[in-house]
Amino acid sequence: MRLFNTLTRRKEEFVPIEEGKVRMYVCGPTVYNLIHIGNARPMIVFDTVRRYMEYKGYEVNYVSNFTDVDDKIIKKAIEEGISADEVSKRYIEECKKDMDGMNVKPATTHPLATQEIDGMIDMISSLIEKGHAYAAEDGTVYFRVSSFNEYGKLSHKNLDDLQSGFRALQVSGEDQKEDPMDFVLWKPKKEGEPSWPSPWCDGRPGWHIECSVMSRKYLGDEIDIHAGGEDLIFPHHENEIAQSECCNEKTFARYWMHNAFLNIDNHKMSKSLGNFRTVREISAQYDLQVLRLFMLSAHYRSPLNFSADLMESSKSALERIVEGVRRLNDRAAASSTAELTEDEKAALAEAEKFTKAFEEAMDDDFNTADALAAVFDLVKFANTKVTEESSSAFAEALKKQLITLTDVLGLIVEKEEEILDDEIERLIEERQAARKAKNFARADEIRNELLEKGIILKDTREGVKWQRA
Ligand code: AMP
Ligand code: ZN
Fold it and tell me: I need a labelling partner for 262 at 20 to 30 A (CA). Which of 377, 425, 429, 463 fits?
């Protein structure tokens, strides 16, 4: 498996620190609003990386944080007259709903910045002790960039260029910094803001220190993959490297992966342009599996343009797979022969080429666009090879092969068959009979079975009524 490493700017063979295991950290969203479709890109892309690694047999420890203390959260709390904590809790819940809709697996751990303050204070103290950080008079703690001579190695920036750039940008009030490049690790509290006591002042952590601390706590000093959107390369990830490597005296992450940006109708998505789209808005119009397929239809390092046309073509592409699976299910159920024929065995052996093409694409820096093409080829193959004469084993084997691949992409392509009204009526009658016979266990079982299929029962005076959820 080869992946592009931002650190070396090359595709490299993936070699984990510990055989069979992957330690992976993905910077998560700041939770002050519903997530937008730009935020959804790293979620879908790196969830797919994780799924492919799991498919290859790796045990993946996947950590992704929620930044739940930040200026934007505080601003929103003031606007709404509620606490910052209420704002972040609300949007973490909403984010999890969207992730679920996009079939993004929950991380092994989703740490919250506000629950990790002690660890941040420890790391900052240790950086001060080692001479990599200093506290200014007002209690602000800064990282001393000049103390780390590898600063700039991820973003491939030269320290001298950076220094002159920063000098030009220097803002008044920052003169307590030793050097304009130095960045904040801890800042004093302002009135009405959440704060924690620390050896330097009551205050709150800077953004970058969060990830260094949470990554170390849940994955160890040295990890395999650190990932996020490309806007995070500088300064966020560069600063994380500086903090972690100076504190732990080890390489922080071996591979750095960054997704390119998602634009809308060829424009950058921004509040001022008013072209923001939330995942929630998209879900009102489309099954979120369509959004997932759309995101995977391009390579993750290529910019991707969101448009109504592309969403429509993703919708029909998804339908093609769903229809293919439905047809295989129907054929398997209707077939009168169970056993594979010799021809079918040969066809299954031939179909292996699609799995091989899929793996080759994914092994080449997660080329999901080509992997999807292999899935469509397999659908086409199944559509032509499976006929009314086919055995159920043949239809089932092709379906299994197809579902294995779509599962790696995290695409849900098998829809629950709708339960028909007659079947519902029959089950309700059976439930009534069970109740009469005082077999309440069976009666409950039927109620739950129906509930799982989205049918809600209501016991009324006029008898049992039902409705679809
Ligand atoms: P934020 O909440 O801004 O910290 O962003 C959370 C994640 O979403 C980060 O990995 C960002 O790089 C990523 N992200 C934000 N906007 C976009 C976009 N338009 N396209 C792709 N990724 C984005
Ligand atoms: Zn981060």
Answer: 377
pLDDT at 454 over 90: no
Q: Is the CB of 406 under 6 A from ligand 1?
A: no
Token pair 């879900």 in the structure block, residue: 283
Same fold for the pair 2-259 and 279-408: no
Is residue 33 in contact with ligand 1, taking CB distance under 6 Å? no
DSSP string covering 279-331: HHHHHHHS-HHHHHHHHHTS-TTS-EEE-HHHHHHHHHHHHHHHHHHHHHHHH
- What ligand has the least distance to the C-alpha of 73? 1
Residue 163 to residue 262: CA distance in whole angstroms: 31
Average pLDDT over residues 286-314: 97
Please check the confidence at residue 292 and state whether its pLDDT lies above 90. Answer: yes
Confidence of residue 359 (pLDDT cuts 50, 70, 90): very high
Q: For residue 28, which atom of ligand 1 is closest to its CA?
A: 6
Q: What's the predicted TM-score (pTM) here?
A: 0.90
pLDDT for 458 equals 87
What are the pLDDT digits (tens) for 108-126?
A: 999 999 999 999 999 999 9
Residue 65 Cβ contacting ligand 1 at under 6 Å: no
Measured from the CB, is residue 88 less than 6 Å from ligand 1? no
For ligand 1, whether the C-beta of 45 sits within 6 Å is no
Return the CATH superfamily for domain 279-408: Isoleucyl-tRNA Synthetase; Domain 1 (1.10.730.10)
Q: Is residue 73 in contact with ligand 1, taking CB distance under 6 Å? A: no
Which residues have C-beta under 5 Å from ligand 2, the single-atom ion? 27, 211
Domain ranges of the chain: 2-259, 279-408, 421-468
Span from the CA of 229 to the centroid of ligand 1 (angstroms) = 5
The yes-or-no verdict on residue 170 having pLDDT over 80 is no
Return phi, psi of residue 303, to 5°.
Answer: -60, 150
Determine the Cα–Cα distance for residues 467 and 446; give it in Å rounded to an integer.
15
The CATH homologous superfamily to which domain 2-259 belongs is HUPs (3.40.50.620)
Q: How far is the CA of 237 from the centre of ligand 2 (A)?
A: 7
